[in-house]
């Protein structure tokens, strides 16, 4: 057991349930006492935690089919985090100094059962990369889309946490052309110049419709869709699908982040006749259905990062006080890539 442990820590709680999208005013950073870990427990000092849109669904209470509990007023937020074990109780397999991942982010320290932590090694050159959403992109491309050499791949929401990795991963897996979408012209430039997309369509452009832009970017159609948005993007992608196209649905941000919904539905108009006549496969991706993907992804991601074949676009927001604002900024689409809160050493 280590000595001089902190007696208190801070965490982010939902102060009041929002009507519509939550903002910083709905959260509070609260100080609470810390106790030493008991048998089979560990105390982890969090270094980074993920800011992710799924919190909208949990706060909205729309958790049917979701393997996570709802977040009610007064509850602490949670989510993926990377940290260092600072104390371990009896019978714990961990020791102080061990680097771990767990789901008790949104707090400076986490006291939790050791079996809720996963030891991480040096597979990735930077521990923060363990918070990437690349496993979802990789799993969708390898398990559902089963990408083939020369495929034309369309990634919606390409400037987000999944999209900034889905495009490069598709290329490394053999795609011949990779097209993305984003609502920001500035982000479109970054996707082209920094991430390696061949073309980017911008919904809402005054010069051309989304359908028209996609026809121009993929005149022969698309073979694979990695969809994080839904809505108009999915509708239009179906019009561009080639025969036998494989659609992997990873997210539904069009409905999830709508102020008129609660985060648990994303209705969309689709042409079922076209799905039938073109033989299009349309499936939703869940990591829980493919538990082997996470380890496989870390191994390949680490190799690609070290070789320089891929990067990890992300932004680090310093300090737990800025976490509620960071969530609002994520909802507003202000950031590029993965968004994490970085906590200073204590």
TrEMBL record:
<feature type="domain" description="Enoyl reductase (ER)">
    <location>
        <begin position="20"/>
        <end position="341"/>
    </location>
</feature>
<dbReference type="InterPro" id="IPR045010">
    <property type="entry name" value="MDR_fam"/>
</dbReference>
<keyword id="KW-0560">Oxidoreductase</keyword>
<dbReference type="InterPro" id="IPR013149">
    <property type="entry name" value="ADH-like_C"/>
</dbReference>
<dbReference type="InterPro" id="IPR011032">
    <property type="entry name" value="GroES-like_sf"/>
</dbReference>
<dbReference type="InterPro" id="IPR036291">
    <property type="entry name" value="NAD(P)-bd_dom_sf"/>
</dbReference>
<dbReference type="InterPro" id="IPR041694">
    <property type="entry name" value="ADH_N_2"/>
</dbReference>
<protein>
    <submittedName>
        <fullName>NADP-dependent oxidoreductase</fullName>
    </submittedName>
</protein>
<dbReference type="Pfam" id="PF00107">
    <property type="entry name" value="ADH_zinc_N"/>
</dbReference>
<dbReference type="InterPro" id="IPR020843">
    <property type="entry name" value="ER"/>
</dbReference>
<dbReference type="Pfam" id="PF16884">
    <property type="entry name" value="ADH_N_2"/>
</dbReference>
